[in-house]
Amino acid sequence: MPRPTPLRRLSRRTRLGAATVAALVTGTALFGIGQATAEHAVPRTDKEIPNLTLVQDKIKAYYGDTVTPDGQHYASPKSNYAHQVRGIEARARGYLAKALARPATGSGSHAKAAKPAIVLDMDDTTLLTYNYELQVGFHFTPESQDAYLAGTDMDPVFGMDKLVNWAHAKGAEVFFVTGRKEAQREWSVRNLKNVGYGVPLDRGHVFLKDKEHPPPYLPCGANCSVVEYKSGTRKHIESLGYHIVANFGDQYSDLEGGASDRTFKLPNPMYYLP
Known about the structure:
Blueprint: H1 18-26, H2 52-63, E1 66-67, E2 73-74, H3 80-99, E3 115-120, H4 130-135, H5 142-151, H6 160-169, E4 173-181, H7 185-194, E5 206-209, H8 226-239, E6 242-249, H9 252-255, E7 263-265
Parallel strand pairs: 3-4, 3-6, 4-5, 6-7
Antiparallel strand pairs: 1-2
Helix pairs in contact: 1-2
């Protein structure tokens, strides 16, 4: 996290038009951020704009919204969301079984010596923000995020803990690259440990965004876009002698910029990060 609502996210979450949110929910084509339809950038009548409450209801139905007596919201393991995630994980496992069985490869000074690695985003890739989003009514603020992370562990995205632990046991080094701020490191690491990610979670394996002291390997410094920050960090990981065979994220900005053999996009209709 830093992030948006279904209409905003990260340090710069971008507001989506209601039709764009609907397109994300229903799986229809995304014509452009803020575009009401393929034809009209500005809606000509109210009929071109889906009702926002109904869009949120679709999101809840997709996640199989389950409410506990104390008002906590959880996604159902029987939901269409869970079903879709498991299909992606099955494809990833099949790919990784082959990729991790191949001899190590690399380029330049790391040729024939690079260790295989996987890179994962955190929010809605390895940890599910659904309960937080419902608690704040899809209205992200840095303050509410801090308060939530300080005292609450998010559930793992269905099956991702098992996939990550399996890949690590098969020889993959595991790295987390998240847009969460550096000040949230302790809470983030605690959460990953508590929900079953049994992989190294030290500073060399968990990268958070540090605007106050940006690392020297990011030329964009404190002003990196999401793509610049994430792809630049992946390139840094490769420079340490790793060969990234797979990169997982719930946003396309998690996956763009190269430095990975293959990408796997996790579903997320709740917000958009450019």
